[in-house]
Amino acid sequence: MDTEQECLCCTEWDLLSRDTQENHCFVQSEDFPALINKAVLETFFHVPKINWRRRPIPEGPNGQLSTEQCRLVAYRVVLEWGLKGERLGRKQRRVLPSCVVTAIRNKYPSPSGIYQGFQEADELSRIL
Known about the structure:
Mean pLDDT: 77
Shape: globular
Oligomer: single chain
Order of helices and strands: HHHHH
């Protein structure tokens, strides 16, 4: 990860329960693969409650999400799961653990190999 802020370990992430933190890395849990499953991401992408800035359309081939959109939605799904129904608040953002970011990037890699890293809310409006 590019910044110290982004070098967060899942055991330090306050959104995970103590049991999860002490037992193993979150990406090794049985919940994680389900959270970043492409069908889950496609469904979550179309849920109106998400309040994307605009109603985006899938930018990938055959009306599917692009890998960039998959990454962004996966980050959002993991965060929503961690919040367990609580609202983060308008323009509030959280850094995800580096293991989560790495796993999502590995599953949905950038064709160019270039990634943005953590961005504040005002910086992230182009895609979603």
